[in-house]
Amino acid sequence: MSSLHDMSVRLIFFIFLCGNFNYANGRLQKISVKGTVLCKGRPYTNASIKLMEKDGLDADDELGKKETDKNGKFELDGEEDEFLSIEPYLRIRHTCVEDKTCGGTVDVPIPEENVDGKPFEPTLQLDRLDYTTSDCRNLKFAPHG
Q1: Where in the cell is it found (predicted)?
Q2: Calpha distance 106→48 (Å, rounded)
């Protein structure tokens, strides 16, 4: 009977260790975004903005969400405890451009240097995206101006 008890205790301890591996060995990484969304040169209000973090094996993590204000502006902060470097991105839902390829949702990668560093401060011109690609997760913005 005691060997079954010992085995149960070891199994519970092993599960506890596995479940806390990322927390115990990871590091808290922070990201801050302060941006403006434009459509045809004008502030785009009520665009849904989500700060996301890409995960390889399971669903991506949502670190924060907000809608753009009357000036097309938004601010989001988030943090994630990960063993490896996080891969944050912005997910934007909009109706600025009739876009059958991406269905009004685009993902904008956040540069690695903005993790635990200076805030990512983009001006995102939704009508200046290259929608000819089928890769809606890595659409490129034309330079603002």
Answers
A1: Secreted
A2: 11
Q: What is the CATH number of domain 2-138?
A: 2.60.40.3330
User: Strand pairing of 61-67 and 27-39?
Assistant: unpaired
pTM of the model: 0.73
Who's near 90: CB < 8 A, 6+ residues apart? 33, 35, 49, 50, 51, 52, 76, 107, 108, 110, 122, 124
Straight-line distance from the first to the last Cα atom of the chain, in angstroms, rounded to the nearest whole number: 76
- Give the pLDDT band of residue 53 (cuts 50, 70, 90): very high
- Domain positions in the chain are 2-138
* Token pair 């094996």: residue: 57
- Retrieve residue 138's tokens: 């890595």
Are 81 and 27 in contact, with CB atoms under 8 Å apart?
yes
